[in-house]
Amino acid sequence: MTGTAREFTIQLEREFAATMDEARRDVVYLATEGLALAQEKSPVKSGQFRANWLVSIGAPDTTVQEGPGPGHAARSSGALSAYAAQDGFPMIYLQNNLPYASRLEDGHSKQAPGGVVGLTAAELAAIWNGMQA
Fold it and tell me: 11: helix, coil or strand?
C-alpha cells in the first residue's frame, strides 16, 4: 500500500509541476501580447514613445530610452525569458516611463484618441477569456 501511495504522490507532483509550467507559459504569452499590442497602438511622432514600452518582473523598471530605436526589446525579452525560472508568479510590469505617457493615455493624440493601455488591457482580457473557454 505504501508504494501505491508514494507513486500516487509522485504522479500528483508531476502533474502539478506541469500545470504550473503551463500557467507560466500562458502568463508570459499574455505579457508578450500585451507588449506587442501596446507598441502597435502607440502614436508615433518621433518613435520615442513606442520605443519606451518595457516589461519588468517583480518591480517596476524606471528606465527611459532617449529617442527612437529598438527600445527596451532586449531588456523586456530577457525579463520574460527569465520568468519561467521564478518561484510562484511574480508581478509582471508593462510600463512606459515617458513623462507624457499619461497624457497620451488620456487621449491627447489624434493617432490614439482612445489611449493605449486601457484598450490593450481589454484585448488581453478577451485573449485570456478565449484561452479559458
Answer: helix
8-50 tens-digit pLDDT: 988 999 999 888 888 999 999 999 999 999 999 999 988 899 9
What are the Cα distances from residue 133, in Å, to 16, 28, 32?
21, 19, 20
Nearest to 79 by CA among 100, 53, 47: 53
Q: What is the pTM of this model?
A: 0.85
Cβ(56)–Cβ(93) under 8 Å? Answer: yes
**Secondary structure E strands in 16-80:** 53-57
Q: Are 83 and 92 in contact (CB under 8 A)?
A: yes
Pull the grid cell for residue 93: 510590469
